[in-house]
């Protein structure tokens, strides 16, 4: 009985993944042809696709440009918006910071649900102009970024390109759009850096001028840049300080994801610990909870008001913590994974170097609760169970040793 259901589970997975691969391939070929055609031949089919994807299908719906739509959070937010009838157009450059194949599978998933992702870079001003000339976006959900705290040590330039230059290019376009969209964008809980306030949990009104990584500094800089565009050009801005977001279709570079992969492969995992031997802890937050916070931010964003001298309104400028208000140590994260997999991890405990990682994070979420109705409902045990289920479905336990994530 168990064997039969396992076999049918496995064959359903194979069929679904094969279908996704097929859609991915077709989408890649079409998008390759189309992105070329758009500029060479002014392709009608490309324009039809973006119009259809961004088309609003409910009363009082919104039309959202989602940057980083093939990313982890971008995929989930795009699906949530599309399923309630909003118009959604994705933009993603499919960079290879982690496996582009996972991003392409996410794109295929979105394609099935009617969300089209334009393959392009936000720094491409010409492309942005075409998109904004074609669609009157009411909102921009800016999630595209160079992520990863550790990678910033290796390649700081990628963070300047993606988190600062791109942000300015996008804001410039939004500033001159008519109507101007409202902008919700991804900042980070890492802006709290060294706990100079000497208090937990971290609140939005705390000082954030001691970042400990290039990643965090680019996110903090983004908060200053967006504030300038809000004051000078009247753009409505909401910055979301995401804490450690996890879940199905997640990012392979994150600890929980690499831990499961190594445990299944029987490889050791590295668990960092502070110099004084205390465990590191994070405010892990499940993707579905974060998506609700993102959607509520769009719904309550208010309007951009422009920069004319006669304007008598001020555009909103908001910042919210999106965490779980309930930190968990990294060793506890490992033991939850072990329980779910019924496997023991081989753990190397390593004292953390001065590499820019924070020791502890806990979000105060009362402002988001009050203004957005944000209320996380998924604890780490429940969320990781969902993640493990997805991981085994997506990569398949028996084949995991041959798969490259
Ligand atoms: O915006 C943010 O706030 C960031 O959130 C996330 O950063 P973090 O909260 O640091 O998550 P993550 O890397 O999963 O490490 C979790 C814990 O495991 C520890 N850790 C990590 C790796 C390892 O091999 N061993 C280990 O102990 C590690 O020291 C830490 O204590 C995103 O990754 C980052 O891209 C960015 O989005």
UniProtKB/TrEMBL annotation:
Catalytic activity field: UDP-alpha-D-glucuronate = UDP-alpha-D-galacturonate
Cross-referenced InterPro entries: Epimerase_deHydtase, NAD(P)-bd_dom_sf
NAD listed as a keyword: yes
Annotated Gene Ontology cellular component terms: Golgi cisterna membrane
Pfam families from the UniProt entry: Epimerase (PF01370)
Residue stretches making up the NAD-dependent epimerase/dehydratase domain: 64-300
Entry similarity comment: Belongs to the NAD(P)-dependent epimerase/dehydratase family.
Entry protein name: UDP-glucuronate 4-epimerase
Species per Swiss-Prot/TrEMBL record: Lactuca saligna
